[in-house]
Amino acid sequence: MKRDFLSVSIMTKIERNDAIARVSSAISASDGWIVNHTLFSNIAATINFEFPANNIDSFLASLEQSSFDPQLDREMPDRSDGDLRAQISITFLHDQPDLKRDVPTFG
């Protein structure tokens, strides 16, 4: 069965903004582009992106060079031609409280 989706997880103690910048750079270095992202306070982030399927190994190597230990969440997809949909989930390990955001009143 052909796998057409790469799912990667990382856990890190690297400061949140720096970690996201490093992941973004790894995506760009692999000729990828970010499609969507979700931030969960300062606890976690999920980035959805696409990149050429034959750049999987260079993407994972780029993450490792950025001091991450990427874990595949599912079976490795085919490294064929064409673009590959992907998702990386980042969990930030720290003892800081959740971020507080002011929410304006409405209505």
Assembly type of the chains comes to single chain
- Share in helix: 10-25%
Counting H and I runs of at least 4 residues, what is the number of helices?
A: 2
pLDDT < 50 runs, ≥5 residues: none
Q: Nearest-angstrom radius of gyration?
A: 15 Å
Mean pLDDT: 91
CATH class membership: Alpha Beta
Q: What number of domains?
A: 1
Order of helices and strands: EHEEHEE
**Derived structural class:** alpha+beta
Structural overview:
It contains two helices and five strands, in the order βαββαββ. It is an alpha+beta fold and 107 residues long. The protein has a single domain, classed as 2-Layer Sandwich (Alpha-Beta Plaits). A hairpin with a 3-residue loop joins strand 2 (33-40) and strand 3. Helix 1 packs antiparallel against helix 2 (56-65). 21% of the residues are buried. The model has no long low-confidence stretch (mean pLDDT 91).
Keywords:
Alpha-Beta Plaits; 5-stranded mixed beta sheet; 107 residues; alpha+beta
Summarize the structure.
This protein has 107 residues and is α+β, with helices and mostly antiparallel strands. The chain contains two helices and five strands; from the N terminus they run E-H-E-E-H-E-E.
SSE order and pairing:
Elements: E1 5-12, H1 16-29, E2 33-40, E3 44-52, H2 56-65, E4 71-72, E5 83-92
Parallel strand pairs: 1-5
Antiparallel strand pairs: 1-4, 2-3, 3-5
Helix pairs in contact: 1-2
